[in-house]
Design goal:
Blueprint (H helix, E strand, L loop, with lengths): L4 E7 L5 E6 L8 H21 L10 E3 L4 E6 L5 E6 L6 H17 L13 H19 L2
Antiparallel strand pairs: 1-2, 1-5, 3-4, 4-5
Helix pairs in contact: 2-3
């Protein structure tokens, strides 16, 4: 069975890609494509907030396509976390919030991390891998 999560992106409040992880998506993208996708998503998210007829809209949270779903979580600081996953995967909001918790615990509390810069934190990587593995095991049990 294929992995539920194809890839994970973390975008800073300026729209710059600060973290990317591929979890075995069928169509691997090169570095330029991942940067373009992150920038495009940041722009679409911002435009959707401005065009929404609903006051206080937080932007696009779910984009559904035939071959994938894209779930997004935006923190209060404007950092966006989004996953590209199999269509119809419904538990991604919870997973994104757990990833945000890992981000706050292992990246933001790291005294060597500079805000808005690419994430290079071994503890974050290890705990993220464990979380995704746990998510895959839980998905197989459903």
């Amino acid at each position: 069975m294929a992995a539920a999560i194809y890839s994970l992106y973390i975008i800073n409040k300026s729209g710059g890609l600060i973290f990317y992880k591929d979890y075995g998506s069928a169509g691997r993208m090169d570095t330029n494509d991942t940067l373009r996708l992150a920038s495009l998503w940041h722009s679409m998210h911002a435009i959707s907030q401005q065009l929404s007829p609903v006051h206080g809209c937080n932007g696009i949270e779910l984009l559904e396509a035939d071959t994938f779903d894209l779930h997004c979580f935006q923190s209060l600081t404007g950092t966006k976390f989004f996953v590209v996953c199999e269509p119809g995967t419904h538990h991604m909001e919870t997973l994104l919030k757990h990833i945000y918790e890992l981000y706050t615990d292992y990246v933001l509390k790291n005294p060597f991390y500079e805000m808005e810069m690419p994430i290079r934190c071994e503890l974050f990587d290890i705990n993220l891998a464990q979380l995704v593995l746990k998510d895959r095991v839980a998905l197989l049990g459903r």
